Amino acid sequence: SQQGEEDPQALSIQEGENATMNCSYKTSINNLQWYRQNSGRGLVHLILIRSNEREKHSGRLRVTLDTSKKSSSLLITASRAADTASYFCEGGNNRLAFGKGNQVVVIP
Amino acid sequence: DAGVIQSPRHEVTEMGQEVTLRCKPISGHNSLFWYRQTMMRGLELLIYFNNNVPIDDSGMPEDRFSAKMPNASFSTLKIQPSEPRDSAVYFCASSFTGRGTEAFFGQGTRLTVV
To answer: Do residue A43 and residue B45 have CB atoms under 8 angstroms apart?
Structure first.
């Protein structure tokens, strides 16, 4: 079974706005990771949050983790056109299986 | 390190032909993953290896697909015989298995079977 299942949104926002996307998972995890995929390219790691953490920041990214609900959210603040991509989460149990991804389009 | 290297970048082949995709993981990484990505099915995990041993191949769609990892620096994904529905982008990724380690992806191989 997949370890990450994004709320399969296609989000279209204006540059400068914030983008929020969600992810749920099914089994217990040690950590959860978010990745970004620009069109036609491989996934790139963005941020990791451990199971004993509730929130983590990295630059314009903010990730939350709710282990009781088996869910996570990724917030991108002050979005830029370069943030246009698909975003995937993965519950870290070494198997590295992803959900369908959230597609985000940032309009300049 | 040059990152995860996949070859070829593009492959066009005729139905029924054998196709071999290649992957060189990052040196020192002990886990390797093969994925297939299509619009319809998204990003599917086909198989992953740990220390050159296949750990989970439940995502391999059919017997026509096979993967090998003869050593820590090389892996292949073979499709024989290929079919048009195998057309997709195939990604390879590697990581060092452990708590909180990120995976690095190759640029992918775009396969078209006509």
So the answer is: no
pLDDT in tens, B24-71: 999 999 999 999 999 888 899 999 999 999 999 999 988 999 999 999
In this complex, which of B43, B48, B100 lies closest to A95 when CB atoms are compared? B48
Chain B residues with CB under 8 Å of A101 CB are 42-43
Q: How remote is the C-alpha of B3 from its chain's centroid?
A: 15
Chain B residue nearest residue A3, CA to CA: B45
Over residues A61-77, the pLDDT tens digits come to: 999 999 999 999 999 99
A47, A61, A64, A65, A88 from A56: Cα distances, Å: 8, 8, 6, 9, 17
Q: Give the C-alpha separation, B7 to B36, whole Å.
A: 15
Best of B46, B99, B109 to mutate (most A CBs within 10 Å, chain A): B99
CB distance A93 to A30 below 8 Å: yes
* Cα separation, B75 vs B77, whole angstroms: 7
**Distance between CA atoms of residues B91 and B109, nearest Å:** 7
- Minimal Cβ distance to B45: which of A42, A96, A100: A96
